[in-house]
Amino acid sequence: MKSDILQELERQRQGLEPLRRNSAIDQDKLTEILNEISVCLKSIHGLAGKLGQNLKDIEWLMNVKQRAGIPGGTCEFDLPAYHYWLHTQISIRRADLTAWITPMTPIYQGLSVVLKLLRESGQPQQVIASKGGYQQMLAGRNAQLIKISLNQNLPCVPETSANKYALSIRFLTFTQAHPSQCSENIEFSLTFCNL
């Protein structure tokens, strides 16, 4: 994971660096993004050892990982150390969690920069889902991420399905029982994002 993030950050830096000479680009924003990438590259390069190695040294935590997928696998009698930890003071648990997560912060920051660049890469288009349904043929168009934005006051949620040929979005009414497709036209913003 560490090398993948480093490669992607470096690829983005190399792609953005030539834009410094482009007068149509907001140079302050570009400098800000390039600085973020540089900071992330430096902090990830500074990571020693494998990611999460500090967690592998905590035996009871690894036991929780192994048994969490088993129904009833995290019972008190199977994992007494875990339940002891759960009943310690909240300040102790919070300090432990911080100590466990802190070594992974550079990875989180690197991922955040890559995702921010991805999310901001596309141009939104306003479209309408007729009677709650929308389809678009992709015609060879690729997207790493599809962003859907709609009015938060609408009582519906999007259900998306896509393959290399088509994109289909259904807006479902949100009910406790069984969601059904909206019967009204839904205006929303659709963005195809690529790095």
Question: Which features would summarize this protein structure in a list?
Answer:
195 residues, YacF-like, 2 domains, 3-stranded antiparallel beta sheet, 7 helices
CATH topology value of the largest domain: YacF-like
Annotated CATH architecture of the largest domain: Orthogonal Bundle
Number of domains: 2
Work out the radius of gyration.
23 Å
Shape category: flat
First-last Cα distance: 18 Å
Order of helices and strands: HHHHHHHEEEEEE
CATH class of the largest domain: Mainly Alpha
Structural class: alpha+beta
Number of helices: 7
Count of beta strands: 6
Mean pLDDT, all residues: 90
- Percentage of residues in strands: 15-25%
Into which percent range does the helicity of residues fall?
40-55%
What topology emerges from the helices and strands here?
Blueprint: H1 2-16, H2 27-45, H3 53-56, H4 59-67, H5 80-86, H6 90-101, H7 105-119, E1 125-129, E2 133-137, E3 145-150, E4 156-162, E5 166-173, E6 186-193
Antiparallel strand pairs: 1-6, 2-5, 3-6, 4-5
Summarize the structure.
With 195 residues, this protein is of the alpha+beta class.
Structure characterization notes:
There is one protein chain. The chain is flat and about 55 Å long. The strands form two sheets. The protein has a three-stranded antiparallel beta sheet with strand order 1-6-3, with no helix packed on it. The chain is α+β, with helices and mostly antiparallel strands and 195 residues long. The two termini are 18 Å apart. Helix 1 (2-16) runs antiparallel to helix 2. It is built from seven helices and six strands, in the order αααααααββββββ. The chain folds into two domains: 1-120, Orthogonal Bundle (YacF-like), CATH 1.10.3900; 125-193, YacF-like domains (YacF-like, Sandwich). It has helices at 2-16, 27-45, 53-56, 59-67, 80-86, 90-101, 105-119, and strands at 125-129, 133-137, 145-150, 156-162, 166-173, 186-193. Strand 4 (156-162) and strand 5 form a beta hairpin.
